[in-house]
Amino acid sequence: MPQTSLLHKLVEQQVDRSTYAEAFRCGDEVVSYGGLDELANRIAHRLLADGVRPEDRVAICLRRGPNLIATILGVLKAGACYVPIDPAYPASRISYLARDSRARLVITERELASRVSEVRTVRCIDDLDLATAPAHRPDVRVDPRCLAYIIYTSGSTGRPKGVAIEHRSAAALLRWARDAFPWPQLDGVLAATSVCFDLSVFEIFAPLAWGGRFVLVPDVLQILRLPPDAKVRLVNTVPSAMSELLGVGGLPADLAIVCLAGEALTSALVERVGRLPHVRRILNLYGPSEDTTYSTCAELESADPGTPSIGAPLPGTRAYVLDEQLRPVPPGAVGELFLAGAGLARAYFGRPAETASRFLPDPFDRTPGGRMYRTGDRVRQRTDRQLAFVGRTDEQVKVRGYRIELGEVAAALQAVPGIRQAAATVVTGPGGDTRLVGYVVGDAVVDRAAVVAHLRTRIPGHLIPAHIVGLATLPTTPNGKVDRAALPPPQWSTGTRAVGTSTPSGEDEVHATSSAVWQELLGVWPGRTDDFFALGGDSLSATRAISRLRSRLHADLAVGALFEHPTFDSFTAHVRAAPRRPARPASITRAVAGPLSFGQQRLWFLDQLTPEGTAYLITAVVEVRSMGTAAQLEAALGDVVARHEAFRTSFHWRGDAPMRQAHPRATVPVTRVAVAATVDLQEQLRHVAADTAATPMDLETAPLLRCRIVVVAGRPVALVFTTHHIVFDAWSLNVFVRELGSCYERRIQGSPLAPTGSYATVDAGTRQREWLASAAGRAALDAMVASLRTAPHFLALPTDRPRPVDRGHSGAFLLSALPASAANAASAIARRHGATLYMVGLAAFAALLGTWSGQGQMVIGTAFAGRTDLATEEHIGCFVNTVALCIDARPDLGFGVLLAQVRETALFGLAHQDVPFEKVVERLQLPRTTGHQPLVQVAFGVQNTAPATYEGATVGLRAWEVQSQDARLDLTLWLEQKDSQVEALWTYSTELFGPATVARLHHRFGHLLAAAVEDEHRPITELVADSDQTYRDKERR
Prior knowledge:
Elements: H1 7-17, E1 22-26, E2 29-32, H2 33-49, E3 57-60, H3 66-77, E4 81-84, H4 91-100, E5 105-108, E6 122-124, E7 147-153, E8 161-166, H5 167-180, E9 187-191, H6 199-209, E10 213-216, E11 234-237, H7 239-248, E12 257-261, H8 267-274, E13 281-286, E14 296-300, E15 312-313, E16 317-322, E17 334-341, E18 347-348, H9 352-358, E19 359-361, E20 371-381, E21 387-392, E22 396-399, E23 402-405, H10 406-414, E24 419-428, E25 434-442, H11 448-456, E26 467-470, H12 509-522, H13 539-553, H14 561-564, H15 568-577, E27 593-595, H16 598-609, E28 617-626, H17 630-643, E29 649-654, E30 657-662, E31 670-675, H18 681-693, E32 705-712, E33 715-724, H19 730-749, H20 764-773, H21 775-788, E34 811-817, H22 820-833, H23 837-853, E35 857-864, E36 881-888, H24 895-911, H25 917-924, E37 938-943, E38 948-951, E39 955-961, E40 971-978, E41 981-989, H26 995-1014, H27 1020-1036
Parallel strand pairs: 1-10, 3-4, 3-5, 5-6, 9-10, 11-12, 12-13, 25-26, 31-32, 37-40
Antiparallel strand pairs: 1-2, 7-8, 8-18, 13-14, 14-15, 16-17, 17-20, 19-20, 20-21, 22-23, 24-25, 27-30, 28-33, 28-39, 29-30, 32-33, 34-41, 35-36, 38-39, 40-41
Helix pairs in contact: 2-3, 5-6, 12-13, 12-15, 17-19, 20-21, 21-25, 22-23, 22-26, 23-24, 23-26, 26-27
């Protein structure tokens, strides 16, 4: 058949080849090519009788089903352009889209007619009497340059804008799809994307144009509910949805091709998908609607290191990486991506000014009238000529996969009665997630619930801010524009239910405050029967919730209260019944000199013993995305040091004890490292980090911080820094990144953040001593010592090598994911027992060590953040405290019995986490030896802090701590939940153990968990014996 560039003609050619073959299915209904063609022909004839002509716009507002697909095809057969409208949109938006597209008519259903009542011409498909309409193909002349569809995207002016796509551009996409996915790869495409988004064009028309088949579903999660005969072979979705799919049940066995698009893709997700044995291809697809769905493509391998690229341009597409003067940047340098070629849209419909600003003359194309599209995306070309995505240049953002123009959100907020001014931005929430935030200036106190209720009638849900912040005025730049970098972050610590002080109707102060705290920490407003831990809470967030409620309600709450009362109703009842205590004055001590905390004191003595040691240095890499300079980043670093006293603190011997000395200012030693664009950046960062961490740090000289700025082609791409644990802990990394991001943005804007007393170091040493001297502190210390009085103070693990008399810190680590069966088992056991991943993991760790050592009772250390005082949450410093837990893991116990005991022990530790470990060791009067650490030689923990990231208007940061090769203890295990996966990090002393031993421990740990969920009454010794047998079987294979 002759080649055509018309969408409907491509489908008709397949109809003539495969009239009776299945075109698509929806639920139980299977539609053949011939049946689809006939229904579309009848619809086209009715449209023509209604006066529809080529290039007329016909809006389609139908629910997902066969009629939707046939109507789209029928509109094209009539020579018209289809404009998809989601029936779930607010009525005002439906009316706007129909008016803005100047639709000749709207096709809907009788049940939906009330939603389009404001539109002048409406046709209900139920009333078209299609049975009597002609069934042959209408004879309508359509040029490939005619419009095929208009897809509306978020608009920067506050109005959505329609991207007008011609037939020839869509046909070019389909020709690429034919070559990229040869038969039978298009036989079973999941069509899960709304027709209002351009991914649907690929999902529907690629199979229909080339004789394939698609499965129409409401959303991508429905793939898990499809019958086996659906045989979905290809899924096309956003990474966040794919991650959710893997988390709730994996992918069907027929699925062979996974296409990911619409969001930044991580190598971790690629690796997870690649581990599925039936998945043969993973593609990362990039492209704006303005270039017809896809512009570049990368075929990925799960073993590829580093961040996945967005690939190379599709056939017929050209990609330019240009600077601000539209000049090509050298390979490896960051520039803005411009696209040209066959896929470019005609225009923004009815928006000539916006079209001219984004579709520019192509200076590299000799064809008259050649154009290129300014994407607003910043990329760099790698040495393999693949493109790497870096970030955005404008106000367009991505939240949960949705492309959002902040101007549209601001315009919707400003349209709310009583709001005079509004702005919007995205911030990193307390859980590390990206949240959309609205800022409003109102005539009076505005109830957030009322604002949201109004927005729900005007804009789709993904455009509604998660938080509303009330301001007296909006900050502006010198030219009068809103200064987004100066917008204050939401006050997570004070709740965001209302802009003002009103309490929602029917709620008392306890209900309102508790609800706000749950929302801050979990990201959702709780229902009466919601369970804190089922919503994603853990030990850390439970501790933070209690500290917030203690501060706001002055309630005398135990740290473990949420474990005893996990549902919202039962918890608020407990809070109401709790006694109240006097409010403590909110003051931050700014003593120039003062005593060390007991934890700092121990670190200071260790440093004195081995001043040449580096075991207690912390090194991290902060990856940087911005348009700022290295000088501005260095200045921002100085601002952070000025705002956080910890970095400006030195440590000295004064009289008979070490003391800390705070300095008014300190200059950070910063060096710049220029890296060629052609080298492997991640590998280079590891080298720089290792070099930065190799030199000991003098605790008597402030600042206790040294930095290197890594520069590529004159732009900063990373900050590598080393500090000492005596002033910095794991929690501090998140605070540091948030502070650095804010200061860097303000430096770029030319309005640096000033030092402020609120960021002075809390005098932890003095407060700790005051608390220990109080009745509560003395009782807590007595209880902790009593719990350990009869515990064995040494755990004699079988070692591969004799324990040296003087054990050093030489170590290694094993990082490996637990098998899915083990991760799922841990979650199931936790739900069954009202426990957390930490408690289940601790029980399994104790069971493993008990059977391995033959020592049923043992002490296991666990690290608590030590920030039970709300005032410490936004401070850089060393607050972490080790809590020693005595656990009885006799081999004859069942795992369920052990877990119940461990749960109680863990709650005891949680309630006593402020008791300094050093004071416990001192009270126990343990003999000291250089061969092992006192009391605690093994430790366990769960990493449950949010990723250290910052996403602002002009700056993006992502930090990760460099894993140390030092082993402070004999053996430690850290678990970290990543989506549905649980990663295990084993750190071990190489003076005692070899890698094979630790690999066996990892296997036994995972198998023990998987076996425990099947029969938690079996003795621990049998569960471990089974794991040993499976490991031996595995080695023999």
